[in-house]
Amino acid sequence: MKRQGGFTLIELVVVIVILGILAVTAAPRFLNLQDDARNSALQGLKGAMDGAAGIVYGKAAIRGNEASASEVAVDGVQTIFGYPTAAANGIGAAFESGDWAVAPTSVTGGSALPAGQIGYTFSDRTAAGCYVRYTQATSGAIATTLVVDGDGCTLD
Fold first, then answer.
1. Residue 133: strand, helix, or coil
2. What is the pLDDT of residue 84?
């Protein structure tokens, strides 16, 4: 008689159970990409705002408005010291804000941002700490600052 080689049913079941346990414990760590995607989108928004501010500053410098301490409109964008102001008609008009909205106080930590700052977040986002904060220039020597607060970009 020939002896058949192969795996027994018990061995196959044990291997399947081990693979199932690995899938249950390890897969969520690798498959939860939404948080990373939100943070990457905020970094992209920061880059878009930074680029838009640079372009507006260039246009203001060509017109000689880069040292103006009062608000000046440059191609429909309100500027101060050549950079967009922290307002919807400032930085909000300088970049394509279709998927983004001004961050409500629930997103910015329960209180309004100080004067000279504005936050942008996802249009459908309400969790605190998931926005890009734009601070307008306060003098000709100091440009705008952009800060990404992505701590609250986890799933609700």
1. strand
2. 92
